Amino acid sequence: MTRARNLSLLIATIFLLLTPVAAQKPVKEYTIEQFMNTVRIGGSSFSADDSSILFHTNQTGIFNVYSVPVTGGKASQLTNSTKESTYAVGYFPDGRILYTYDRGGNENSHIYLRDLNGTERDLTPGEKTKASFVGWSHDRKSFYFTTNERDARFFDLYEMPLDTLKPNLIYKDETGFEFGDISYDKKFIAFQKNGVSQADSDVYLYNLTTKEMKNITQHTGEIANSPQTFDVDSRYLYYLSDSGSEYSYVARYDLSTGKTETVEKSPWDVSYTFFSRNGKYRVTAVNEDARTKIKIYDQASGKSIPLPQLPNGVITGVTISPSEKLMAFYLNGDRSPSNLYVYNFATKKAMKLTESLNPEIDADDLVESEVIRYKSFDGLDIPSILYKPKNASAQKKVPALVLVHGGPGGQTRVGYSPLTQYLVNHGYAVLGVNNRGSSGYGKTFFAADDGKHGREPLWDCVEAKKYLAKLGYVDEKKIGIIGGSYGGYMVLAALAFKPEEFAAGVDIFGVSNWVRTLQSIPPYWESFRKSLYREMGDPEKDLENLRAISPLFHTDKIVKPLIVLQGANDPRVIKAESDEIVENIKKRNGVVEYVLFDNEGHGFTKKANEIRAYKAVLDFLDRHLKNGADVSSR
Question: Of 553, 555, 551, 521, which Cα lies nearest the Cα of 535?
Answer without folding.
Answer: 521
